Amino acid sequence: MDKPSLISLCNEALLLVNKAEISDLFSTDQSMAAKACKLLLPRTLMAIFSSYPWMFATTYLLVDPTVDHQNDSDDPDWNYRKKYPYRYEWLLPEDCARFITAFREDWIPIRASQAEQASPVAYASSSKVLDSKSSSSSIWSNYSAIAYSYVRYNEDPEHWPAYFCDAVVLDLALRLSKYFVDSLQYTSMLLPQLRNQLEMAKAEDAQQQYFSSYRPFPLKAMTRSF
What's the pLDDT score for residue 71? Predict the structure, then answer.
């Protein structure tokens, strides 16, 4: 069986809306179908990756804080920073499609809330543009060292399970059906198919090995700062 590629997935989606196949996404001389796929595919990928804490795409990271806000009172943005009463800030990486969990000592998960003062960790999310995998979201904490997990955006279908590929195809086909006026009749058929596929994909993904059975690296000793 051939390995999936972005082109093959686009062609599967185009077939569902009765459009001709394409040969590439990046040439300057493109058909309308290729231009539509090039426009809509990034939106599809970000929408699917960010829709659920996919186990297959989960990444764990232990890094030092990006910013220490101890002297924030000298910062002209201090009035904004006061929303988040925490000393340390971690900017999430550009390939982060969805933040999942923060961890402290002994890999104990820390519930992240929207900047509640009683919570040891806050997750402050900016509005994400669907056709961009970058984000200005941050994690805030008074712990000087934490680890966290997130869903990693990855554009290589060879790293996706089949259930995820099928969801991408249906989501892209749905977007294409709305893009091409003569394909609108496929929208009502594709929408329930996409919903069903997403539910099946989530159920299958949940059967993947859970992180609690394995630790990729030890956490260094935690210190609490006030």
Answer: 66
